[in-house]
Design brief:
This protein is of the alpha/beta class. It has twelve helices and eight strands. Strands 3-2-1-4-5-6-7-8 form an eight-stranded mixed beta sheet, with helices on both faces. Helix 1 packs across helix 6, helix 7 packs across helix 12 and helix 8 crosses helix 9.
């Protein structure tokens, strides 16, 4: 898709702003990006920061070649009803709305509307997102390339069948919270061993950040890196044995299954 084509973002919260940055990073020119947002102060902030434009919902829907839906799930149906009379029937609709299926969007717009369903996560806001996306049947090859380019500018993404969107939600969508919960537990564990909260937080965060960078840059698998740091009968081995006794793998798997099942319930 040509970079000069018009793109509208409906909803300019944290994720909406992250997508503005990703669009610009993927080659879309700032003046071609419009937002629809009810808060005047938020509009002024984003216009000043990114040199984008602000449009009414009707104008954005009618003039845009790509429309990004970044609203709450409970607001989705009413929004689709509002844009249906105005939207270009060939416009690519990218939905970042949790739990709403491609079929639901097409039912409320048009069966022939090109729709892509995307499950992002919060690290998208720092350009390190992980997303899973699914293509509707009307999406063209050119539109598919556009989506891949956009998501690459926001982090990393994988294309999956829509039936796997609940698994994506349980893995990368909800995954940052699992990570933050583990960091919280490490900090509290360090404090219990006598470290100050400040030192415990500094050391824990740096350990996590450094380990993630090592995992990304070394080319080694998580298993290999774990084995490299674990000496037989050493301190790390003792900690890992405790994890194993408490069935860490099963705990994580059950948590992810709970997120997966809840995602299905919310669909």
């Amino acid at each position: 898709m040509a970079n000069q084509q018009k793109v509208a973002i409906l909803g300019a919260g944290v994720m909406g702003e992250a997508l503005i940055a990703a669009l610009i990073g993927s080659g879309v020119k700032s003046p071609s990006i419009a937002i629809v947002e009810k808060r005047p102060e938020r509009c002024s902030e984003l216009v000043g920061k990114y040199a984008i434009t602000v449009e009414s919902l009707e104008n954005a829907a009618s003039a845009s070649d790509v429309i990004l839906l970044v609203v709450k799930p409970q607001d989705m149906q009413a929004l689709l009803a509002e844009i249906k009379p105005h939207i270009n029937k060939n416009a690519l609709v990218l939905s970042f709305v949790a739990g709403k299926k491609i079929g639901f969007i097409q039912e409320n717009l048009s069966d022939s509307q090109p729709v892509v369903r995307i499950m992002p996560n919060t690290p998208t806001s720092v350009g390190l997102g992980a997303a899973g996306y699914s293509l509707g049947s009307a999406v063209t090859d050119e539109q598919r390339v556009f989506v891949a380019s956009l998501l690459a500018a926001a982090g990393k993404a994988v294309e999956v069948d829509e039936s796997l969107q609940d698994a994506i939600t349980a893995t990368s969508g909800s995954g940052p919270a699992y990570f933050f919960a583990f960091v919280e537990a490490m900090v509290e564990g360090a404090i219990a061993l006598g470290l100050s909260r400040e030192d415990a937080t500094t050391l824990t965060i740096q350990t996590i950040v450094g380990s993630a960078a090592l995992l990304e840059k070394s080319g080694d698998s998580p298993t290999t890196l774990r084995e490299k740091v674990t000496s037989p009968n050493g301190t790390t081995a003792a900690a890992l044995a405790s994890f194993s006794q408490d069935h860490l793998s099963e705990i994580v798997a059950r948590a992810m299954k709970a997120a997966h099942d809840r995602s299905q319930e919310l669909a």
